[in-house]
Amino acid sequence: KRLSAATLPSEATLETYLEQDPSLLGERLLVIGRQVRTPHGKIVDLLAMDVEGNLHVLELKRDKTPRDVVAQVLDYGSWVSALDRDAVIDLANEHLDVPFESAFEDVFGTSAPDELNAALQLTIVATDLDASSERIVTYLRTFGVPVNAVFFSYLEDDDRRYLARSWLAREDESEAGA
Prior knowledge:
Elements: E1 5-6, H1 11-20, E2 30-37, E3 43-49, E4 55-61, H2 68-80, H3 85-95, H4 100-108, E5 120-126, H5 131-142, E6 147-157, E7 160-167
Parallel strand pairs: 4-5, 5-6
Antiparallel strand pairs: 1-6, 2-3, 3-4, 6-7
């Protein structure tokens, strides 16, 4: 049965889906914080970590994104990239229900690596991206800036809901040739 796209009830709904199951992004992640306040008074929607201890900044937009979202995610990335191991663990412990080490082991089945935040991934999560934002993200990727966008379509069928995902740039594309 062909399904039609519906409007996501709210940005918070998508944020809740991703917090509960970040593998919707195609990779196992530990969400270490939701609505993480920066020292600059800004709020990161979701801050996550992969099995290698790399941080992922996830900035969500329910509707078509204005190009300002690219500046927003870069701003968050500039802050997150400077966090050392202790700062990452403290931040995670502020937001998680269990100690960071336990949460990491629960999600990945192994202890956290000694080095945390060696690499960073910036991801704009949206239903659509305006042409200007798409050009800017594509341009930044050619310089190795770890930014990408993932699009979610929200579908409904009676009482069932679905999310379909697609990426602006595939991860196997070389940044130099993106």
